[in-house]
Specification:
CATH class of the largest domain: Alpha Beta
Subcellular location: Membrane
Largest sheet: 7 strands, mixed
Shape: globular
InterPro entries: Beta-lactam/transpept, Beta-lactam/transpept-like, PASTA_dom, PBP_dimer, PBP_dimer_sf, PCN-bd_Tpept
CATH architecture of the largest domain: 3-Layer(aba) Sandwich
Family: Belongs to the transpeptidase family.
Distance between the termini: 105 Å
CATH topology of the largest domain: Beta-lactamase
Structural class: alpha+beta
Number of domains: 4
Keywords: Membrane
Number of helices: 20
Protein name: Penicillin-binding protein 2B
Length: 730
């Protein structure tokens, strides 16, 4: 026995010496075996890039989401765990979960029991490890997550995930598009852009996941003194748009009201800055919610550039501009309205009989088709087509969006050139109309439209793309542009003008109405009667120096007796333009311009001394804290402010809330930043309500809810204008 045990001991000892000397066992390297057994890898998920408006306001981003999972298999609790890792009490668990997810207790209980008792006929030994609860168990709020965790329910897991967050609902949905999670062939899940900017800039928005390599025991706990190797995740690029969230909200609100009242087949609005070509707002109806895709139809096209329309009389604006540039326009010359014959084709004015012999100016104001025919005789139809192409029609604008269509300018026959002069036959896009009109609004300088302001790498804070305004070849002179604007203004203010409904309170408008026939399927015939037209308006304001350019169309609205197609179009245009101009601080006619004063530097000064100086300068000081020495101020020294503007002073100590009424959203955000309070903002525009009253002392963890309303909502609620003249009410 001694020899046997002694021999075994020597054999074991020799084996140990061999392994220690060679580092191998059974031909395998022991270090590699240990590494394979204990090495772990944790994925660090990258955020998809954010999309923001021109002021940095959020449009789309990744946010945390939680998914509920119930672990049913007893195997989860094996392996040394002191607390159960699977559901023990089904009744108690179902009752607790029913308080926080939209499912009844019995439904939750049945789902867990059915999963627990299920057996695969092909593999009876295999059991279901865990169960989920469908849509009811997804996107659980952070508040409910904390409450569920406090219950300490065995086997209940709350899996942290990322989801795409679209906080503004149907906001510019066909521009922004949407993204969704997909699995590749290897089962790896990632977020993919499927439409709009989310798809077009998917590569830029997609981040690169990082990872953490570490060593752990069999239960996943990190081994002591083990090193971690971290490769940081790289978030996707931030895309800053030219879109202005406030103006876009004016557009969305107005379209929602008009859609509810008139139920049109289609609507489109594009708002631009004519001096730069920046698109400030863009929307269409039908629309959809990017997060849920609710409302998404089989049409996935951005109507402003991917589809074409016959523009109708809005194109007369460019016929007029060409005639003025060529010195063929005589506003006081006369022509016979009613009808005009070219070869075997007869064109007629809208009322079929015309208005007798009238001047060309009156003809333009009345939107006479025959006036364009006689004007074309003076200008020359081929010269006219040259100008139409100079204005950019018939070719893509080159906007930074995909699938733009060029449209078709018909000029093979004289009759086609004639019908093009008043917007029939040839097709254009809304984006081409916007680009061409910038030349009229911008003193002859035509600007290329664009929607991407800049793209930034958030990991390095470097700008990878910075878009600047781009001029196009000028089709007309500044003098011509000015004359066209004056005539456009007369269509709104003139006694015989077709644009009277588009007048704004306090701002001069120049623009042109349009009523276009809609081709039937096949394109050989047109619909007629019963509102089967595309009604539009192309306008700018203030007409002397246009700051905004807006194109609106409404297709086939359901009109009541006494209503005309221009009614829904006017409600859109006037509501959007007045709200936007006031938001941009464009002073209405007749109002006095307030001189700005430079703010001094008050940091380091005593509060009492600073308040006196601020009030003496005509400003309104708001102190954050108890007073004493001023640490920070907003706005910073050197900023020009109008009399009565607010100046925030940050000091140490307890803060009492001010009266936020009338504050702008930007000022509330600045107060939030300096105070550190949990201020939650609903809406856009200016403050109308606050959840805690002035003078309340609050802590940093006590939320304050601030309600804002747009100028149009505020003016409408005050009833400051009769309903038929209420240009902000929609």
């Amino acid at each position: 026995m001694f020899l046997v045990y002694g021999g075994l001991f020597l054999l074991l000892f020799g084996r140990m010496l061999f392994i220690q000397a060679t580092g191998q066992a059974e031909g395998k390297v022991m270090a590699s075996l240990a590494e394979a057994k204990y090495a772990r890898e944790s994925i660090l998920k990258a955020n998809r890039g954010t999309i923001v408006d021109r002021n940095g306001e959020l449009i789309a981003s990744d946010t945390l989401s939680y998914r509920l999972v119930a672990v049913l298999s007893e195997k989860a609790s094996k392996g040394g765990s002191k607390t159960p890792k699977h559901v023990i009490d089904y009744e108690k668990t179902a009752e607790a979960l029913a308080e926080y997810i939209p499912l009844e207790k019995e439904t939750i209980l049945t789902k867990m029991k059915n999963a627990k008792n299920f057996r695969d006929p092909k593999d009876p030994e295999r059991e279901i490890y865990q169960v989920e609860f469908g849509k009811a168990g997804q996107d659980i709020s952070h508040e409910n997550v904390l409450a569920i965790k406090e219950k300490k329910l065995p086997g209940i897991l709350l899996i942290e995930e990322k989801k795409r967050f679209y906080p503004n609902g149907i906001f510019a949905s066909y521009l922004i598009g949407f993204s969704m999670k997909e699995k590749d062939a290897e089962g790896k899940e990632s977020t993919i852009g499927k439409m709009g900017l989310e798809q077009t800039y998917d590569k830029e928005l997609t981040g690169t996941d990082g990872k953490t390599n570490f060593k752990s025991d069999r239960w996943g706990f990190t081994l002591p003194k083990s090193d971690k190797a971290v490769i940081a995740a790289k978030d996707g690029y931030e895309i800053q748009l030219t879109i202005d969230k406030t103006i876009q909200n004016f557009v969305e609100d107005a379209m929602t009201r008009v859609e509810k009242e008139y139920s049109p087949k289609k609507m489109l609005v594009v708002v631009a800055d004519p001096k730069t070509g920046k698109i400030l707002a863009m929307s269409q109806r039908p629309a959809f919610h990017p997060a849920t895709r609710e409302g998404l139809t089989e049409n996935w096209l951005n109507e402003s550039l991917e589809t074409t329309i016959e523009p109708g009389s809005t194109l007369k604006m460019f016929t007029l501009a060409a005639a003025i540039e060529e010195e063929k326009w005589d506003p006081d010359a006369y022509f016979k309205s009613g009808q005009y014959k070219i070869f075997d084709k007869t064109i007629r004015d809208v009322n079929r009989t015309g208005w007798g012999t009238i001047t060309f100016l009156e003809g333009f104001q009345r939107s006479s088709n025959t006036s364009m025919a006689y004007l074309l005789e003076r200008l020359g139809d081929k010269k006219f087509i040259e100008y139409i192409r100079k204005f950019g029609f018939g070719e893509k604008t080159g906007i930074d969006l995909p699938r733009e269509t060029p449209g078709v300018i018909l000029d093979r026959y004289p009759s086609e050139r004639l019908t093009t002069s008043y917007g029939q036959g040839s097709t254009v896009t809304a984006m081409q109309i916007i680009q061409a009109t910038t030349s009229i609004a911008n003193n002859g300088v035509m600007m290329k439209p664009y929607v991407i302001d800049k793209i930034t790498n958030p990991n390095t804070e470097k700008t990878v793309k910075d878009q600047n305004p781009e001029e196009r070849e000028s089709p007309i002179s500044a003098d011509t542009a000015k004359k066209v604007r004056e005539i456009l203004a007369s269509t709104v203010t003139g006694e015989k003008g077709t644009g009277k409904k588009f007048a704004l309170n306090g701002y001069t408008v120049g623009g042109k109405t349009g009523t276009a026939e809609i081709p039937k399927a096949g394109g050989r015939e047109y619909m007629a009667g019963g509102g089967n037209y595309l009604y539009s308006f192309l306008g700018m304001a203030p007409v002397d120096d246009p700051q905004l350019l807006t194109y609106v169309y409404v297709q086939q609205p359901k009109l009541k007796e006494g209503q005309t197609g221009s009614d829904p179009v006017a409600k859109l245009f006037t509501s959007i333009m007045e709200g936007s101009l006031k938001y941009m601080n464009i002073v209405p006619q007749g109002e006095e311009i307030i001189e700005a004063t430079v703010v001094q530097d008050f940091t380091g000064k005593n509060t009492a001394e600073a308040i006196g100086e601020i009030q003496q300068g005509g400003f309104n000081p708001i102190v954050i804290g108890e007073g004493g020495t001023i640490d920070l101020q907003y706005p910073q020294a050197g900023t020009k402010l109008a009399e009565g503007s607010i100046v925030l002073l940050q000091t140490k100590g307890v803060t009492t809330l001010p009266n936020f009424t009338g504050w702008s959203k930007k000022m509330v955000l600045s107060y939030k930043m300096l105070s550190g309070f949990d201020i939650r903002i609903n809406g856009d525009g200016y403050v109308t309500e606050q959840s805690l009253s002035k003078g309340t002392e609050i802590g940093l963890d006590e939320p304050v809810v601030i309600q804002l309303k747009s100028p149009s909502e505020i003016y409408k609620s005050r009833g400051e204008a009769p309903e038929e003249e209420d240009i902000t009410g929609g």
